[in-house]
């Protein structure tokens, strides 16, 4: 008879130990160990089953173009690298209520239009609850199956009967295998269920899309090995107070990870946004406003024009406040230090607030020059012309450094009707390619400030 034993497993990283530990020695998290009962197999050696697959030369392997198919949603296809790959596993993670189930229901509807069969396994909702969401989204198909089940043995039975071409699991933390005695959502259950899904995807050539939960830190719940096992990892991001959503690829074995999809959450589902810059600038005032600038940033390989606003005011406290929304706090402190040392702008007795309009998070250094100009113009009650776009990274000595994909940024500004753009002089740009926009090059921060501000009348 098999022996039973228990072990303590970290629910954050999967580290195993024979006794309880308050702090995980692997990931450093506290109070993450949970005792799980595991079954130790008998000492009788199991028979190994070998298949008849033999090695072959890479030049002899033929790849059919039909191995990849479209989801019917262009922004989703952009992030995936052109569409879903047959026999692959895609992990979609995001905060609660961000729209993970919504986009997969819409994807199932689009795929079924091409005559494919899809099986949507809902482990957290009943079939009637899924139907209510489907009615709101306008999802109606004769080849989209809804199955409310958490037992993986029953799910495998339905997969064998229906033989779908795409399988959606909502979510991996809610299903369980009877071969593991631990509760659903534990490290052992997630690892075992993912192994079963890998076997289904590779042997039956079924595309599997799995929804994953995230922790309060924003990481995917479960062991880190989950992200290594799947073929593609996609994060669904957004602000609960804003309607836009970003689909960002973190891992892709069949394409690039530099693409980002933009959606707008409406009552009838997610709508694709083909021109995100217009969405982020639709509430921008046309009048000159001190502390307001337009920057050209990159989300993946897509250029976006974003408005940055700064507010500088005198404080009555001995320590002035520094508040940043949408940009890194330490990056803001570095820019303020350069403004004080290289420009002579005294901010030691003034509060500084910087905000990225729309709730977007900007983490690339090409936004440095825009942040610096927003703070400087607000502090001196001057303004940047509303038809000017700012691009550039600031060094500690006050120089403006080159940025990548500058051609795409200039084309995006020109397409939206902006008349001028300030770029780093170290970027070699062929100005003759751009007829409707003036390109101003700046070598240092002082050059950019003096060339783009106009005194408020």
Question: What do you see in this structure?
Answer:
With 457 residues, this protein is an alpha/beta fold. The chain has three domains: 38 residues; 212 residues, P-loop containing nucleotide triphosphate hydrolases (Rossmann fold); 177 residues, Ribosomal Protein S5, domain 2 (2-Layer Sandwich), CATH 3.30.230. It has eleven helices and 25 strands. A nine-stranded mixed β-sheet has the order 8-7-9-10-6-11-12-13-14, sandwiched between helices. A seven-stranded mixed β-sheet has the order 17-18-16-15-20-23-24. A hairpin with a 5-residue loop joins β1 and β2. The radius of gyration is 27 Å and the shape is globular. The termini are far apart.
């Amino acid at each position: 008879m098999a022996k039973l034993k228990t072990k303590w497993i970290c629910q954050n990283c999967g580290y195993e130990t024979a006794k309880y530990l308050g702090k995980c020695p692997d990931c450093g998290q506290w109070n993450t160990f949970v005792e799980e009962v595991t079954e130790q197999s008998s000492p009788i050696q199991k028979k190994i089953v070998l298949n008849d697959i033999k090695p072959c030369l890479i030049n002899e392997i033929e790849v059919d173009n039909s191995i990849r198919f479209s989801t019917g949603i262009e922004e989703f296809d952009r992030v995936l690298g052109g569409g879903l790959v047959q026999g692959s596993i895609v992990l979609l993670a995001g905060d609660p209520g961000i729209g993970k189930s919504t986009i997969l229901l819409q994807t199932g509807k689009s795929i079924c239009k091409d005559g494919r069969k899809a099986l949507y396994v809902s482990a957290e909702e009943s079939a009637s609850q899924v139907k209510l969401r489907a009615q709101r989204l306008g999802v109606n198909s004769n080849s989209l199956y809804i199955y409310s089940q958490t037992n993986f043995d029953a799910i495998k039975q339905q997969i064998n009967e229906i033989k779908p071409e795409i399988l959606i699991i909502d979510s991996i933390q809610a299903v369980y295998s009877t071969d593991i005695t631990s509760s659903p959502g534990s490290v052992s259950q997630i690892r075992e269920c993912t192994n079963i899904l890998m076997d289904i995807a590779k042997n039956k050539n079924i595309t599997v899309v799995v929804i994953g939960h995230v922790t309060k830190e924003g990481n995917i719940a479960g062991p880190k090995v989950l992200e290594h096992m799947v073929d593609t990892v996609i994060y669904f991001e957004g602000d609960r107070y804003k309607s836009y959503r970003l689909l960002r690829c973190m891992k892709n074995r069949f394409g690039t990870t530099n693409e980002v999809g933009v959606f707008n959450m409406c009552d009838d589902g997610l709508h694709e946004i083909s021109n995100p810059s217009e969405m982020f600038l639709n509430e921008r005032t046309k009048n000159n406003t001190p502390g307001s600038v337009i920057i050209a940033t990159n989300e993946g390989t897509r250029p976006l024009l974003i408005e940055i606003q700064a507010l500088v005011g005198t404080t009555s406290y001995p320590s002035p406040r520094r508040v940043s929304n949408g940009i890194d706090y330490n990056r803001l402190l570095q820019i303020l230090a350069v403004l004080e040392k290289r420009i002579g702008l005294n901010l030691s007795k003034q509060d500084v607030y910087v905000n990225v309009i729309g709730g977007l998070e900007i983490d690339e250094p090409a936004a440095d020059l825009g942040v610096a100009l927003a703070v400087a113009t607000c502090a001196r009650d001057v303004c940047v012309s509303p038809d000017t776009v700012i691009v550039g990274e600031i060094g500690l000595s006050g120089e403006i450094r080159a940025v990548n994909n500058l051609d795409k940024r200039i084309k995006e500004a020109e397409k939206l009707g902006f008349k001028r753009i300030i770029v780093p002089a170290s970027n070699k740009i062929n100005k003759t390619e751009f007829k409707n926009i003036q390109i101003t090059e700046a070598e240092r921060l002082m050059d950019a400030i003096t060339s783009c501000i106009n005194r408020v009348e």
